[in-house]
Structures are given as structure tokens and as C-alpha cells.
Amino acid sequence: MAAAELDTQSIQKAYARWAPIYDALFGSITTTGRRAAAAAATKVGGRVLEVGVGTGIALPDYGQNCRVIGLDLSFDMLKIARKRVDDGLPHVEGILQMDAGRLAFPDAAFDCVVAMYLITVVPDPEGVMRELNRVCKPGGEVILVNHFAAESGIRAWVEKAAAPFGDKLGWHPDFPFSRVMGEADLTMVEKRPAGFGGLFTLVRFKKAG
């Protein structure tokens, strides 16, 4: 069976279902990766864009030297994120509904751009990587945390078997790492395991100055 295609409608439907239980179901699974990405962004500091902010579960992990804007496509997830901010996160400047593939920001607007557990969700990963690159300042960083497909073994078999159900899951189970490596002025400076038995990976890119 072929991999299912993701589109905006299927993503919205999937995350409307996930929103009420997302933190309870995925919170502990994603803790290591979230904290690692937020710590890396805090080292950069300045204006930080979190693309795919979801319920805002990572927002408390950023340092006070960061001025964070979070965005997501899912209205249901953003309702929870806004509640978090209203409860007291002064370093968060805004929570916006926006398509990651069409960011409404000028070029070079952010010192650091973070995308956690996002790139396997979007219909056009290469287009999203172009946008993350575009809004990052020269000399800044683009930071990803994500699951990438195994090249062999039992996990690779499971991922391929799950691929046809990607539209129901809301992500690509068999997403290859090569799909985030297409931006010529982004140089990978770090790649390491980021929790849940090595299922997730932290990747840091430095943008040419």
C-alpha cells in the first residue's frame, strides 16, 4: 500500500481529535526532545519562532532571554496554548494560527526558529523547510525535533506498514531524514537522539551569515 497523502483538512481533523488528550498521551514521550530544543533555542536567545506550537506544552521551557511567538494550524490545539500563556508566560509575545508553509513574517525576522514534532505532519515538508530558513536571520539557527524513518530492521518494517494510515494518524510514519536536508544555506551542526529510546532526533542547523 502507498503512503497516505496529508492535506490541510486531514491535519485539522486529526489534531481536533488529538487536542484534548495530546498532553496526557504525548507529554511524557516528548519531554526530552522538547526540553533539549528549548534549551538550544535559549542559548541563541532573542526572537524565537516556534512553528507547530500545538498546545504550547514546550513554552514554559524557554529561557527569559527569549521572546517567543508560537504558531499552529490547529485551532483546537491553539485554544490550549493560549490558556497556558494567559496563566503566566511573560516571555511569550503571541500565539497565532498560521500555515507553516506560508509564514506571514518578513525574511530574517527571527534569531532562532524551532519546529518540534512538526515536519512529518505537514503536506509539503520541503516547502516548510524553505519557510523556516527564510524567516531565520543569517547566523541564526533552525532547530528540529522529530521522528525520522529507520533505514532497516523491525522499526523500518513497522513504519512502512503504518505509512498508508498517515492521514488518519496526522503524520508520516516513514519520513526520511533526507527531506530536511535540501536548504543550501543551512548547515547541520548537531544531530543526536532526543528521547523515547532513540525514536526522536534533535537536529540543529546554522544559517550562513
Automatic annotation (TrEMBL):
- GO process annotations (BP): methylation
Named from the GO MF annotations, one term is:
S-adenosylmethionine-dependent methyltransferase activity
Which keywords describe this protein according to UniProt?
A: Methyltransferase, Transferase
Q: Any keyword Methyltransferase?
A: yes
Quote the InterPro entries the UniProt record gives: Methyltransf_11 (IPR013216), Methyltransf_Superfamily (IPR050508), SAM-dependent_MTases_sf (IPR029063)
User: Per its UniProt entry, which superkingdom is the organism in?
Assistant: Bacteria
Q: Which part of the chain is the Methyltransferase type domain?
A: 49-143
Tell me, what's a Pfam family for it? Answer: Methyltransf_11
Return the SUPFAM superfamilies for the record: S-adenosyl-L-methionine-dependent methyltransferases
Stated name of the protein: Class I SAM-dependent methyltransferase
- In its UniProt entry, the species of origin is given as Phreatobacter aquaticus
